[in-house]
Amino acid sequence: MADYVNHLKDQRSPYLKQHAMNPVDWYPWGTEALRKAKDEDKPLIVSIGYASCHWCHVMERESFEDDETARIMNENFVSIKVDREERPDLDSLYIKAVQAMTGRAGWPLTVFATPEGVPFYGGSYFPRDDSFGMPSFKKVLLAVSLAYRKNRKKIDTVTADVERILSSRSVITPMELKSEISDISFDAARLYFDAINGGFGRGTKFPHAMFLKFLLSYQKRTGRAEAGQMVRKSLSSMAMGAVYDHLGGGFHRYSVTENWDLPHFEKMLYDNALLAESYTAAYEKTGLEFYKDTAVETIGYILREMRGEMGGFFSSEDADVAGQEGAYYLWTADEIRKALGKDAQAFIEFFSATEEGNYEGRNTLRIDRNAKGEDEPVPDNIKRMKARLFEERKKREAPQKDRKIIAAWNGLAISALSRAGRTFRRKDFGDEARRAARFLLSSLRDENGRIQRYFLDGKGEVKGMLEDYALLALGLLSLHENTGEDEWLQEGRRLVDKAIELFYDDTRELFYDIGSDQEQLFVRERDLYDNDVPSGSSAAAAVLLRLGRLLDNGEYIALSEGILKSIEGVMEEPVSYGNFLTVLESFLAGQEKRPH
Hints:
596 residues, alpha+beta, Glutaredoxin, Glycosyltransferase, five-stranded mixed sheet, 22 helices, 16 strands
């Protein structure tokens, strides 16, 4: 690969910086790239990923560092790199477009679009060579370029259809907020539930922490024991599986196996914040020490590895080290023996390690289901061995961190710390929540008081989205409820009022993800899925309902109710609307308490 520096060299996003030396003539999203595409009548390639994504690294090595692939891209396209964590609005809009066109989408996301940014084709990972039943990326590039030059009428038809489909999602038929929504969602989720391994679906498994939170709320309101049993099975299985880091605490992104034993190894702040709160809530209900240990260890991971020097928490840790996925976390049986000596065999048996390993000759650590009951705490002698092996692991090269301090995700962390501090009577957790909140409120506000999306290298310069305002405000309200300190209530209210000003369209009676003072894309985005984090709309509904009840403010409660009525699609995919359903449960529980 020839030495090359493209237009990403001065970007602050760690993900964009990773690609600054590619021979691809990458641009960041902005007017310069869009103008170049229009002036030269070339289609756009919009490539979206994030710094800790394993398959993003694979596609970079295979295609974006390849001189021939770069030549084809540079001659026929204007190529734009987007950090999905920096611009969730672009990511959400384009992933919906690719799903509409192909039926599936993920990261790295590759979108082909007109110079105006309207997509006409796309996909996720494209291989270097024909494989997995997929054409090579070079073949895709040449075919798309030819189609753009020779079949513009077809391109225009596709882009018109995409715009129509995405715009139609803003046409809302308000639904009645009835308990049947929760009942139907629960019954539908039972069909997806894996009674053997916990979690939902078969094959690849995600934690779905928000849906588990809904199930706890649903059980509390309805008394249906099965909902709690689903939560217990899922949380116990995850905490025993290799998706949990048994040495350092915290959870990996997801498992590629249905029994949670082979994860993709990136670690995200939002997963760990949401799951720390899930295990705290489960401990509150069950009193199980295993759940307390998991919650406390997960928070310990966040405080040890993700805590910024000035305040706030970093966004993620990479899956790869030196190009090898999971290298930091995997062990051979001999490595364990060398580190633990005579105690090693008990550890090897407890954590299911074998001579041949379960991943490329090495072992993920996962608790043998026969060695420990699902709800029993890890024995003290094993805990001591865990600590010794953790010290040995610290000698390895550690995964790289994405040091962006993202407002929304930090809001989730503050909520988790506040709840755990109260539940476990840990003053230090509450102190850390305060420290993070003070840092965010002082460092993420611009001179006009506008909250920025993230802080990195001394400043933030991307305007915050609805999710940033709503989730940060929720964190502050959690801090207020934990401490009784009025400043957090007042700061939370200020954020909520500003969110209404920026994101609420009173003509449509809808909240949008993008503020009225931000770049308006070809469709104003309003993502309703609670996928990785709560959607902006469901988070806004949550904070408005919570604040409305704290202050006995009917206007806030009415806005929350309006959002809930506007969230469609929940019955078709209930697991993807976990936070919405949780807020609905809170709303319904409040309605039942009101005098008739």
